[in-house]
Amino acid sequence: MKLLKQLLDFYLNCSIHVALSCYTLVRITFHMFHIQYDEPMALFAFFGTIVGYNFVKYDALVRVKKYPISNSLKGIALLSLVSFVLVGYYFFQLKRITQIVAFGILAITVLYTLPFFPNRRNARNWTGVKIYMVAICWVGATLVLPLINAGISFSLDFFIKCIQRFILFFVMILIFEILDLANDDPYLQTVPQKIGVKRTKILGLLLLIPFCLLELSLSIFTLTNFFINIIIITMLSLFIVFANVNRSKYYTSVWVESVPIFWWLMIFTFLKA
Question: Which domain holds residue 109?
Fold first, then answer.
């Protein structure tokens, strides 16, 4: 059991799980807009997530806090290096316009991590901004980039899906913020810090209503996708209701981040049925 826990922790700490969530969301975008599987785009998102998340998580530990480099960190660094090489490989297979937009998302990630001015906080620590920056980056990586690379024009369906995807990430981040309430710097002014846990949960549940209703206005609406959305909303609702500061880190890092994976598996299952 100890070995399994160590393997699970390494899998999570390497950001492979969150990268898999990003990959499945790109695949969901392919499905929704009838895009043929685009391997460079999907794997660029997968390996890019590993590089981006590991940079955000471990830059401060190594660069600022001078955290001792353990064997686990060395393994994470090696995986990140390999992923960085693969990101470069797939990046040059994307269209020029996709590359430009990807640079924009990269710039937000770097801004989120590194302070650009002496004695100033990075964007990650800007009051009340974190949740919006993270949600925008995810929308860009999992929805905007795949459509641009496929040459699909920005229709009404695209903008509706952007709103839906933003709501999805916003709600998921709210769950993280509830669990991190005891450890977050009060300066961050996260949503639970500003309005309390109870109101944060109510906000999350209310946001899932437009997420569901917007699906009905799509020209690409199907009953199968709507049914799957209902299941996703139910899952997220339960995660919100039962979220609290005493929950294990696995509550979010495993289960909440698995929501996109379950979503894709349901789409795959129903399509094959």
Answer: 2-272
Residue 130 φ then ψ, to 5°: -50, -50
- In sequence order, what are the residues at sequence separation of 6 or more whose Cβ sits closer than 8 angstroms to the Cβ of residue 207? 167, 170, 171
Instruction: Tell me the torsion sign for CA atoms 231, 234, 239, 242.
Output: negative
Q: Which residue matches tokens 């496929």? A: 150
**Per-residue pLDDT tens for 150-191?**
999 899 999 999 999 999 999 999 999 999 888 877 777 889
pLDDT in tens, 223-240: 888 999 999 999 999 999
* CB atoms near residue 209 (< 10 Å): 11
How many domains does the chain divide into?
1
- The model's confidence at residue 62, banded by pLDDT at 50, 70 and 90, is low
Over residues 243-260, mean pLDDT: 94
Residue 95: what residue type? K
Supply 138's token pair: 């995810």
Integer Cα distance of 20 and 12 in angstroms: 11
Short-list 10, 1, 26, 11, CA closest to 267:
26
Closest to 137 in 3D by CA, of 94, 99, 103: 103
End-to-end CA distance of the chain: 36
CA dihedral for 254, 255, 256, 262, sign (positive or negative): positive
Tokens standing for 82? 């390999």
Q: Which two tokens stand for residue 174?
A: 């709210």
Residues 6+ apart with CB under 8 A from 142: 22, 25, 26, 28, 29, 45, 165
Q: Is residue 155 within 8 Å of residue 93, measured between CB atoms?
A: no
